[in-house]
Write a structure and sequence with these properties.
The chain contains 16 helices and four strands. The protein is mainly alpha-helical. The chain has three domains: 107 residues, no CATH class; 77 residues, no CATH class; 125 residues, no CATH class. A hairpin with a 6-residue loop joins strand 3 and strand 4. Helix 1 packs antiparallel against helix 2. It is elongated. The protein starts with a strand and ends with a helix. It binds zinc ion. Zinc ion binds next to loops.
């Protein structure tokens, strides 16, 4: 007996399980992403902001096509999609396979796939609710809604899913059991509202995941908003510096905070990035050049403030953290980071060689 049916390009399964449709979508879009390698979606290729725009405009809509009706799927299937997005984000930014998810997708300002699915379900729910009553789909929707509300809200499918999502975001008030035409915001307003609450929730979760990993403290101090990483934003203005910025971003998250022996000088240190940038005497020539740049961009008083900072804070500043204690305009900070980024690859090569 046939167990699944394709309708309008979406595979429906008899038990409303969407795993098959989702797995097929992941496989199809993985092939699509691979075909984009030739146009430059890879390290030393296209600027990551341009690449991620292709991801958002071409691949993501195709990956999530029909996701409004995906239901009853397993965590493994969803996780495969999250992994796929993370792999794509790595390829776009030239990060290696060890880059943590919280760093990798957030540097491009991307949300988790699950949040995107929830967003689309809530958009679609509003579309059905506010749709014209003469359309069959609205009539069907109302029948389904009545069945769900009068019988069992714990059943499977789109409406119970939306109910759960609304519960999760504390916006159940909009589920509108009794009077479907009341309190339903118009489409545009609803979309803005949903985007905002989903974004806020994602940002909250993201901050928690960064805070949970001590080795990400430098990254977290530089990339403070769930938006495109500030150094990638510079790379868009100055395309030739793009892949130098990648090295700077790498340095802010690539090593664990554990005691290790520096292979350059033999000293045992707890934070190897701080050691390389501030302390290791083997790298003094490279460090002097970096400090020279900082001297040139800061007022004397601010340079004194910089030298009085802890070694960790100095490291953060070199890698792109904006400090409230130092007066530096956006333009000057951008220029300073461009200069610093030119020196980092040299230093990075030396570090990399010994690790
Ligand atoms: Zn050393």
């Amino acid at each position: 007996m046939e167990r699944s049916k394709i309708y309008a390009g979406i595979t429906f399964n008899e038990n409303l399980k969407s795993d098959l449709a989702m797995q097929e979508s992941t496989a199809k879009n993985r092939r699509k992403l691979n075909s984009f390698i030739s146009i430059g979606i890879h390290k030393n290729g296209m600027n990551p902001i341009s690449s991620v725009s292709i991801w958002k405009k071409v691949i993501l809509p195709s990956l999530l096509f029909g996701c409004e009706l995906w239901s009853n799927f397993s965590n493994t299937t969803l996780n495969d999609m999250e992994i796929f997005q993370c792999q794509a984000a790595r390829r776009i930014q030239g990060f290696d396979t060890r880059s943590p998810k919280a760093v990798t997708i957030s540097s491009l300002g991307l949300s988790e796939i699950n949040a995107e699915i929830q967003k689309y379900k809530l958009f679609f729910w509003n579309k059905l609710y506010t749709g014209d009553g003469v359309f069959l789909r609205k009539q069907l929707f109302h029948v389904r809604l009545k069945t769900c509300t009068t019988n069992n809200i714990n059943s499977l499918g789109f409406i119970p899913d939306v109910h759960n999502i609304m519960k999760n975001y504390n916006i159940e008030i909009f589920f509108g059991f009794n009077n479907p035409d009341d309190d339903i915001p118009p489409k545009g307003q609803w979309k803005q509202f949903i985007k905002r609450i989903v974004q806020n929730r994602e940002e909250e979760k993201w901050r928690e995941s960064l805070a949970a990993k001590e080795s990400l403290h430098i990254f977290a101090s530089i990339h403070t908003k769930l938006d495109t990483h500030p150094l990638w934003k510079i790379s868009k203005l100055s395309v030739k510096d793009t892949w130098q910025m990648s090295d700077l971003i790498h340095l802010s998250f690539v090593w664990e905070v554990v005691p290790v022996i520096c292979k350059l000088c033999g000293k045992t240190v707890t934070d190897i990035v701080v050691h390389f940038l501030i302390e290791c005497h083997i790298l003094f020539a490279e460090r002097d050049l970096i400090l020279e740049i900082i001297v040139n961009f800061l007022h004397v008083n601010d340079y004194v403030t910089f030298t009085n900072m802890s070694e960790t804070d100095q490291t953060k500043f070199i890698l792109g953290r904006r400090s409230q204690d130092i007066d530096l305009s956006d333009e000057n900070w951008t220029e300073m980071m461009k200069y610093i980024s030119k020196l980092i690859p040299k230093m990075y090569a030396k570090i990399d060689e010994y690790l």
